[in-house]
Amino acid sequence: MSVLFVVMIGLSVWYLSRREPLVIQGEVQSRTFDMAARVDGRVAQVTVARSENVRQGAPIIRIDNPELIAKYHQSQADLAVAEAELARVKAGFRAETIAVRKAQMERAAADLTLAQQTYDRKRQLAASHDAPQADLDKATAELAVAERGREQARFAYNEAVAGFTREDLGIAEAKVETAKAGVETLRSLVDQMVVVAPADSQVFRIPVEDGEFVLPGIPLITLVDLADMWVQFDLREDLLRDVKVGTRLTVRVPALNDRAVELEVRIIGAKGEFTGWRATRATGDFDLRTFEVRAYPTQAVEGLRPGMSVYTDWSDLRR
Q1: What is the torsion angle, in degrees rounded to the nearest 10, for the CA atoms of residue 39, residue 42, residue 48 and residue 50?
Q2: 11 pLDDT higher than 60
Q3: Would you say 239 and 296 are in contact if contact means Cβ atoms under 8 Å apart?
Q4: Which of 21-30, 160-169, 308-317 has the lowest mean pLDDT?
Q5: Closest by alpha carbon to 232, among 10, 30, 22?
Q6: Range list of β-strands (E), the chain
Q7: Using a CB cutoff of 8 Å and minimum separation of 24, what contacts does 138-143 make?
Q8: Residue 307 and residue 11 in contact, taking contact as beta carbons nearer than 8 Å
Q9: Nearest Cα to 293, choosing from 260, 255, 262, 264?
Q10: Considering only CA atoms, which of 305, 303, 306 is closest in space to residue 29?
Q11: Short-list 231, 269, 236, 266, CA closest to 251
Q12: Is the N or C terminus of the chain more exposed, i.e. has fewer CB atoms within 10 Å?
């Protein structure tokens, strides 16, 4: 009887003093790319399949947008016109143009000489009352027109000889730069008609089909970078006192036959989330926040996939 009593006392002491396990669960995550295009249009071709491995820069989706292609070609034509105009301004007026304007100036000078002679005769005749005043008025008007014509011809000839002004050159150069910017803008959009993989990754989800109309910013495909995986823990703040960047811990992966995997903590959230743990008592206790902790495998783990769960006894870390 005394032996049974001692055994019962021993079991009670062991039960009361035994260490309760503190199991913490985490989830495997990885870098994910939700690829979208900057242009609208119809999906011309999806070049990959789900779960397919793709290399960085490989085309994965092609978008068809004939209107955008036409605008791009139009911008190229506008650039060619602007460049031709700039070349014309730099070259100045052709010799033939200068000769024509010189001839126009000489003809205008001859017209002015004739108009002056006619005016002089009409004025003398009108003074002697041998011609009506109306003839003198007409000759006066023709003389004024001839003078303005000669001035305009002289200005045109001087302009041809001097060439274009610096202001004209600046305007032509600005038009070329504007046209180039338009071409570059449309070229960047045309390049976006082919969506490429940003890194070596694996296709996870393809929510679009061939021929479907898509809009800018709408995810077309999701890629997962299996070379950049980590385990995320959402820990109460009271569990962080034994954790720092560089801390190593061993977790178990149920999906891999409870395989042990060593992790290293590299990121600890800078600020706790407000959707955390609530106090268990109305007084004498306080709410606990949740911090995100990312731990990376110290070596590659074959078969580890995003979404798998891991667990560990956090008490082992605190001993």
Answers
A1: 100
A2: no
A3: no
A4: 160-169
A5: 30
A6: 23-36, 41-46, 53-54, 59-64, 194-196, 201-205, 213-214, 219-236, 248-253, 259-268, 273-277, 288-297, 309-313
A7: 139/115, 142/115, 142/118, 143/112, 143/115, 143/116, 143/118, 143/119
A8: no
A9: 264
A10: 306
A11: 231
A12: N
Amino acid at 121: R
Q: Is the pTM of this model over 0.85?
A: no
What six digits make up the tokens of 82?
């602007």
How many angstroms separate the CA atoms of 176 and 186, rounded?
16
CB 263 within 8 A of CB 231: yes
- Residue in this structure with the two tokens 């071409």, named with its chain if needed: 183
Answer positive or negative: Cα dihedral of 33, 37, 42, 46.
negative
pLDDT tens by residue, 116-168:
887 777 777 777 776 687 776 777 787 788 778 878 877 776 666 556 667 77
